[in-house]
Design goal:
The chain is of the alpha/beta class. The chain has 10 helices and 6 strands. The N terminus and C terminus are likely disordered.
C-alpha cells in the first residue's frame, strides 16, 4: 500500500460508524411507482399490463426505462408523483432518521418532486434542476457538495444497482440497496453494499447515534 493511502473497506462490511447524512433515491425507494405508471398508461392509451410488461423486459435487459414509449409507439405523457404514492415505510423511516442524521432526497426526477419531498427531509434535489442524471459521476459529486460533508460520511439508499448502488460506491459513499421494484429485485448488489428489503430495516443497519447533524445552509434547495 502506498504511503498515505487509505485502506480499502473490507468486502461486504461497509463502514458506517461516521455517517452524518442519509440521502434517498425517489422512485421505488421512497415512492411506489405503480400508480404513476398506471396513470401514464391510461393517459397514453396503452393497456396497463402491456406497459408494465415492457418495463419489466427493459429491466431484465438493463435498458433505460424511458425506451418504453418508443417500444409502445406513444409519446411520453406528462406525469408526476403524488403524496399518496409514498411507500408506507417512507415517512416513518425518515422521521426516525432525522433526529440523528441529516437527510436528503435526490433522484432522476422533475423539479416538482422536490416540492413533494421537501417537508420530509432536510434537503432535496433533482436531475432536472441539477442538469445531470444518475449514474453520472457528476450527479454524485453534486450530491456530496449539497450534503456538505465527506463522501464516506454519506449513505445513499436506492433500488437500482446500475443507477444507485454501483455509482454511489464508486463515489466513495456508503450504498444501501433496497430490494423492491423491478430493478431492485432483478439485479444483485455488489458485496460492498448494505442490503435491505424495506425502509423499516434501515435504521437498525445504521449506527444508533450518528455524528452531530450539521446546520442547514443555503444549498438545501
Amino acid at each position: 500500500m502506498a504511503l498515505g493511502a487509505r485502506p480499502a473497506r473490507p468486502s461486504g462490511r461497509p463502514a458506517v460508524a461516521n455517517l452524518e447524512t442519509v440521502v434517498f433515491d425517489v422512485g421505488e425507494t421512497l415512492v411506489d411507482e405503480t400508480s404513476l405508471w398506471e396513470r401514464a398508461a391510461d393517459s397514453a392509451g396503452v393497456p396497463r399490463f402491456t406497459l408494465m410488461g415492457v418495463l419489466g423486459g427493459l429491466a431484465v435487459r438493463g435498458e433505460p426505462h424511458t425506451r418504453v414509449w418508443e417500444l409502445v409507439g406513444r409519446p411520453r405523457p406528462e406525469t408526476a408523483f403524488a403524496a399518496a404514492d409514498l411507500y408506507p415505510d417512507a415517512r416513518p423511516c425518515l422521521e426516525r432518521l432525522r433526529g440523528t442524521y441529516r437527510t436528503g432526497a435526490v433522484g432522476n426526477t422533475g423539479v416538482e418532486t422536490e416540492e413533494l419531498l421537501r417537508p420530509l427531509v432536510d434537503f432535496v434535489g433533482s436531475s432536472a434542476r441539477w442538469g445531470v442524471e444518475k449514474p453520472s459521476p457528476a450527479f454524485f459529486a453534486r450530491l456530496v457538495a449539497e450534503a456538505g460533508t465527506r463522501p464516506e460520511r454519506i449513505a445513499y439508499v436506492g433500488d437500482r444497482v446500475d443507477n444507485d448502488i454501483v455509482p454511489a460506491l464508486a463515489a466513495g459513499l456508503v450504498a444501501v440497496h433496497v430490494r423492491r421494484g423491478p430493478w431492485g429485485l432483478l439485479h444483485e448488489a455488489p458485496p460492498g453494499a448494505i442490503r435491505i428489503d424495506s425502509l423499516d430495516e434501515l435504521p437498525a443497519k445504521l449506527p444508533s447515534s450518528g455524528r452531530r447533524r450539521r446546520p442547514l445552509d443555503a444549498r438545501s434547495g
